[in-house]
Amino acid sequence: MSGIDEAAKGVAGTAAGDANTGAGAGDGTSAAAPRRGSDVDLGAWRGVWVNVELERGRVHPVSWELLGEGRKLADHLGVPLSGVVLGPDDASTDAAAADAIRYGADVVHVVRDPVLAHYRTDPYTKALTELVERRRPEILLLGATTLGRDLAGAVATTLGTGLTADCTELRIDDETRSLAATRPTFGGTLLCTIHTLEYRPQMATVRPRVMAMPKPDDAREGTVIDERVALDEADVVTKILSYIPDADADKAQLAWADIVVAGGRGLGKPENFRLVEELAQVLGGEYGGSRPVAQAGWIPPERQIGQTGKTIRPKLYIAAGISGAIQHRVGVEGSDVIVAINNDPNAPIMEFATYAIVGDALQILPALTESLRERKARRSGAGAHAGREAPADA
Amino acid sequence: MAERFDAIVVGAGPSGNTAAYVMAKAGMKVLQLERGEYPGSKNVQGAILYVDALEAVIPNCRKQAPLERAIIEQRMWLMDDRSHVGSHYRGATDADEQPTRYTVIRANLDKWFSKKVQEAGALLICETTVVELLKEGKQVVGVRTDRANGDIRADVVVLADGVNSLVATKSGLRPPIQAKDVALAVKEMHFLPKATIEERFNIPGEHGVVIEMFGKITKGMVGTGFLYTNKESVSVGVGCMVDDFRSARVSPYQLLEELKQHPSVKPLIAGSEVKEYSAHLIPEGGYNAIPPVHGDGWVICGDSGGFVNAVHREGSNLAMTTGRLAAETIVALRDEGKAYTASNLKRYRKALEKSFVMKDLRKYRDVPEILHGNRQFLTTYPELLSRAAHTLLTVDGVDKLTKEKQIQREFVQKRSRVGLFGDAIKLMRAFR
Amino acid sequence: MHIVVCVKQVPDSSQIRVHPVTNTIMRQGVPAVVNPYDLVSLEEALRIRDRFGARVTVLSMGPKMAADALRKCVSYGADDAVLITDRVFAGSDTLATSYALASAIRTIGAERPVDMVFCGKQTIDGDTAQVGPGIARRLGLQQLTYVSKIERVDPQAREIVVHRRAEGGVQVLQTKLPCLVTMMEGANTIRFASMDELFRAARCEIAEWDHKAAGIADVSRCGLKGSPTVVKKVFAPSARATKAQRFEAAGQSPREAVDALLARMFDEHPALETEIGA
Lengths: 394, 432, 278
Prior knowledge:
The complex is a heterotrimer. Chain A is an alpha/beta fold.
């Protein structure tokens, strides 16, 4: 007997294999074919849902960014915006629900259960799919974190519906009243817009920092609905043995930095990256690089900027020797001011930047560093701050 | 120790493929080792395929091989700074006989050819580098590769490993290639719509144009430029002798950028999208730079043996022909039950001498030296000829005799009568 | 133990070169390779095989030329290779793809029970990371994504312990076989195959299955028909509303160009000046 068939039966049992709800895990074992347009009463599915990702007492900020975006979608459709919180039976779950309302949710569906204390695929998938079947939202958004992507793939397959990953833009198409999800394609050279026309819910994941962070409104009011889902720890095969926090917890500050300097292939050699780091230091910002230099190992992978790396929304972004293909562009478009330095006047980045210098990055970067250093010295008085501006011991 | 083969071919370019194909077809157990990711991944060429050499092993290849355009027009340009003088041959588009030259995309052709080689029964292994030859005394008995368990034995090894000829050099079979005997060429592929290419170059349907360029575009360095029409792209490139690049301190890319700006070239590639650039070395030492091509248990063919006729820019056909002759020699020896000793393999050298390969190379063997020592052919003459043409073709009321005298005077001024005479003799010597 | 590793053949984006003079990106002539993330999974599977004597089957869904990618995997040490290739698969989104692959794995498992399935973390061309979870759901496998380390496998006890990347740290999870694992990049490096393995790969037969041989009962769940997501539009991004302001470094010193830029920038964005070095 195949290990897989056995397991499939087991999981189908726990994952809401209830004939009434129509959901099921496997397609060999329970007959959950994707619901087609003809079977789906599209009109019955209403509402925009956002997964509020609560882990270890803290909600991942991408959930708020998605509520901000979800608000626009919900208003356009004239439907309520809801958050979903799956968490332990304690105060952190309540706090998350309350925050969701502050960030824009009209309703928050909450499942509190010790089985959901920490993320595991099976119970979370079961809970979320049951809620979706019960409440029938037309749109379900999740943050593209490791949790979100793990959960979204499992939920979409269980529900047999469409999922678009790493979207850079979400809109409503009025003609079809469907979600138009845009993301890069063709290796990052072009954009494509994807719809899930005949299936519900329409699912999408969005990376952190792609959408703007909304302002919380303490005065906002909303409804919290306590939802019951039958979960039993005995049914969950995966156990969490422990959690090991990262040693340097402040490593991933790049995504939230207000000033970022980045370098690309145009710098020529990995050794030239120190020019980027020096400028970032003088500016008091973070440094990063494009995908090719991350893949080539010139910078650690956490410092990769772009669609598959970090999306950033700094006040000032300086890109040296980066051509600015779409995949990079979508990662930096949210910047307030973009300065591009490139030898090639026709590089894509030279078009969408705010300011573009056509020249050799290896000369421009040190010139910028020097000029800015002098400006700072002039403004704050040379003597007192000379030490602070000295180059790092890197 | 890995298994044993009748023959090992090092390299899956045109010469290696031809050799492997012929031997495999004759029923020999052939292993072909390629350093790159796939056959031809390390190859760069203009590229022009001289079908005759391929047809000798694969009859009717025109129908199966991926070809771009059948060349119907050849332009030879002697370039001045902003003008050129040239010759032009255009054949009949509806001629009865089949064309003998086609532009090809090297990568596509190599892939196709390799498929035929494998269908013939040869075993191809890529991403594996032969680091040296295995010897017993002076006899080569196999190869050592960079993989674990990578020693493989064979009765004979065919070295078709390209211009750098690394294996032969490392194994002491030949001296390392010298800067004066090799050229560095760079090329770009410019993509244009098919209709644009056909209109711009006046080549309906499947026909193509080849433009070979000499003169001031190489800034006094010995070299040439070229432009070939493919179906939906145009290949543009330029190459010069490596020792010239070094002493002139010019980069090949700079040279190519300037070539593309030349008024004779720029409009031909206007509006194109550059999607590929590549660079490669080309052996151009000619007859005098050909190393020993056979020994106890080994033969060399293709670029690895310096088999390139730089004057006519023929390389791939010499590669295929030498590959074929090497393989035929080996097959004949096998049929006769003879060992692959240096003296038996001498037949390969003899076959080369009898063929157009050595005949052509010998004919032009003085050209590299003559050009090296006579830069005026690349600089002064293009200028003079351009100005002469300009003078003659300008209708400005000056009578023709005066014009002719003026031209004569300019030639004599620049080169002196003795110089002109000497140049003529040198050219004759070079091309006889 | 029997391990199935799902792989995909993709264009090699790392080989896209930059023109030395113009710095534009050259995409032509880029070869197809095995999705690099899949090689991390393959190496992990091969290490388990080395330790427990497991059998490794590589599986791919794609056009006929994807057989090259599978052959490459065999050269690294995979025992068997299966390519499911069929016109009905054309236009599959991730839901349809996981359906096809899950069916094939079920068929493979009918001959020899499957204990672990590995998928790449994501592909370098699609980047969605959805197929792995999709396969896990359909086959009822315990789903372990973003695994940075496999700490322990116990085939007898049917147990596995992994480190799974979460925000700010790592979850140490224990679960039971059969399971599906996707590996984080950098967890290992694929081995350099030996000559014997290359010979075997060059000669091995890659099984090619159409949808019937793959055990796919319902063709309407494959290809375009079975794909809930539909690509409506493919387009180049529109130019920004205001064009970039240009500064040419040519004809002046770098410092002059930089000062001109900074002067303009701080003039138009005065808040930035206080932001710097704050």
